[in-house]
């Protein structure tokens, strides 16, 4: 089959998409900096520079998540593919370059179709061409859009084939438990009885290991966190002095999450999009939560969202888990 360079969703009207995106970015930043505890939504960490820094984080010795998940996939690919069954449709929200889906699709028994969902059309088109060159009989249809909204899901045509949502990378950890439940229930609503979810999740562990992963000795996570301030400077006419903020990441055992903050190193005023924000020395901007799960906690989350966890795989240190769950 010839390589098909088609794309669904918001890819066609890219400038309108970018305008909407800029307006939402400005509104979210101004609202986030106006609260008592200043916050910035973590989804804005991923502009082009931020996505490259995140790729660098994934290569770090201290950031065990990516490596551990890859090892679990590598050791169990055949049993995962067997569970997914023949002629399945794979849907990957937040697929990026689809590097995790590619070996899975290759191991699967004649997968029927693959729908990677992402906000970046360029990355999706590259991935589509690479995967279709390797698996010429598979139909790969990229869908551009934000997977937390209804729009990209509406682009996926109904199918009589079994559908499996593939959600690796512990992305679920960046949602609060309530929002994670809502998101999984939203995934459930796009599936039918007997369809499935293959999801990767970081597990609760020693706080030293967790904190090293988010405050790495190479300071890449610090650059990733501070890049958000640089992005605000360039896109929203801000004047953050990135040297006047420090990166801080710590594990909160009761909330079972690693919190990432930017700490103001002095009293200062910062302008963004014509508005002035006061910072006291030591005051923080909360930029990300990365929730960690126990097996029992994750299984409860899956059940309350309409899934029955039927299989799980982990590493020998039990640092990370991949679950397969069927729709209830
Ligand atoms: C994308 N997400 C799962 C990463 C995490 O571990 O929460 C984002 C990240 N933030 C700092 N380092 C990595």
From TrEMBL:
It comes from the Bacteria. GO terms for molecular function: L-histidine N(alpha)-methyltransferase activity. Keywords: Methyltransferase, Transferase. Its EC number is 2.1.1.44. InterPro entries: EgtD, EgtD_Methyltrsf_superfamily, MeTrfase_dom, MeTrfase_EgtD-like, SAM-dependent_MTases_sf. One of its GO terms (biological process) is methylation. Gene3D superfamilies: Vaccinia Virus protein VP39. Pfam families: Methyltransf_33. Residues 25-326 form the Histidine-specific methyltransferase SAM-dependent domain. It is an enzyme of class 2 (transferase). This is L-histidine N(Alpha)-methyltransferase. It comes from Microbulbifer salipaludis. The lineage of its organism: Bacteria, Pseudomonadati, Pseudomonadota, Gammaproteobacteria, Cellvibrionales.
């Amino acid at each position: 089959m010839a390589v098909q360079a088609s794309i669904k969703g918001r890819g066609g009207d890219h400038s309108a998409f970018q305008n909407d995106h800029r307006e939402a970015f400005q509104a979210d930043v101004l609202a986030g900096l106006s609260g008592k505890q200043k916050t910035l939504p973590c989804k804005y960490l991923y502009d082009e520079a931020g996505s490259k820094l995140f790729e660098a984080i994934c290569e770090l010795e201290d950031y065990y998540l990516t490596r551990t998940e890859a090892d679990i996939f590598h050791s169990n690919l055949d049993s995962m593919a067997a569970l997914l069954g023949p002629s399945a449709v794979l849907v990957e929200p937040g697929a990026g370059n689809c590097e995790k889906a590619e070996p899975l699709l290759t191991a699967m028994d004649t997968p029927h179709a693959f729908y990677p969902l992402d906000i970046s059309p360029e990355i999706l088109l590259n991935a589509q061409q690479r995967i279709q060159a390797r698996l010429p009989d598979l139909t790969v249809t990229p869908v551009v859009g934000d997977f937390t909204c209804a729009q990209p899901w509406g682009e996926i045509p109904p199918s009589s084939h079994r559908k499996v949502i593939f959600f690796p990378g512990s992305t679920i950890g960046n949602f609060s438990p309530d929002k994670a439940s809502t998101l999984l229930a939203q995934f459930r609503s796009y599936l039918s009885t007997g369809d499935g979810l293959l999801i990767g999740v970081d597990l609760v562990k020693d706080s030293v290991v967790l904190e090293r992963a988010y405050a790495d000795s190479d300071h890449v996570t610090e650059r990733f966190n501070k890049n958000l301030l640089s992005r605000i400077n360039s896109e929203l006419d801000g004047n953050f002095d990135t040297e006047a903020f420090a990166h801080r990441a710590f594990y909160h055992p009761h909330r079972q999450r690693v919190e990432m903050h930017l700490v103001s190193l002095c009293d200062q005023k910062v302008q963004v999009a014509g508005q002035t924000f006061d910072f006291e020395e030591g005051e923080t901007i909360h930029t990300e939560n990365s929730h960690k799960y126990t097996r029992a906690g994750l299984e409860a989350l899956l059940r309350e969202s309409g899934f029955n966890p039927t299989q799980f795989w982990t590493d020998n240190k039990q640092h990370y888990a991949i679950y397969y769950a069927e729709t209830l």
